[in-house]
């Protein structure tokens, strides 16, 4: 097997996206979620503090009430208070997650990545993954996060130790704003760390995806050959170009009374005249790009274009160019021609 030394082509990268091989960092997703939480607490700090004090006051008012009554009232109060807060916070985190993924990979529908793969239950493959570069990097990344986050917390509590010692003497109305302010600064430190680790992780994921999608010289040659097409397709394209340039194709389309098509892939030109051509013939037919060209010419010269999937396929595969239609297709072709003649007659009377 050839060694994979070539950088992936654009087609290889596109195919990789379809299989879910995209550059995406989970740390950047975590960063966006942290930012969403920070913004929530930043803009609603005062409201949260007031709600917290209100809940304590409400709980104290229930001290002398019967237990069952107090429990019921407290439950209703907590459900009412927490539902809106949790829903709003959850919506913010979900939106942040979606935005972070979209900014990294765009809109990707990787249906192939959802399917079952036998490698997932292959013990040999799973054993290799344990000692792969990706696993080692993930282990180092997890260790780095534990160490750095621990250092941030230790530094934070050491730096604000005097503030924490003074909180018991401050009172509830004073202590809560101070605590929320300290939490915000702690959150800023954590987010700063996630910015750094997110950039590093994204860089590694980019390197890993490019490495996984590398191609051998034979792969590049084969892809080039596939894009160019096989010799038969080249010959057919040249024939189509010569037909278009010579005008024979356009002439056949203009002589037809109707064009039958199978939405986008097939187009068949039908010729008919009561005296000169009493039995309808297939004057021209084409598929894909040629079919689109036929339809464009027909529309340009106001020739009726009828969409009939079954009839278009039958005419395309069963009747050669210039041949009369077989007896088996008389009825559907006659129905189509009657419809076309009515349209032509109605159009001529209107004009």
TrEMBL record:
> Metal-binding among the record's keywords?
no
Q: What is its main location?
A: membrane
Cite a single Pfam family from the UniProt record.
Answer: Bac_export_2
User: What does the entry give for GO biological process?
Assistant: protein secretion
**Membrane-related topology note:** Multi-pass membrane protein
Q: Which residues form a coiled coil?
A: none
One GO cellular component, as annotated: plasma membrane
Sequence intervals crossing the membrane = 21-43, 85-110, 143-161, 185-207
Q: What is the annotated localization of this protein? A: Cell membrane
Going by the UniProt record, its keywords in alphabetical order are:
Cell membrane, Membrane, Transmembrane, Transmembrane helix
Q: Which family does it belong to?
A: Belongs to the type III secretion exporter family.
Protein name, please?
Answer: EscU/YscU/HrcU family type III secretion system export apparatus switch protein
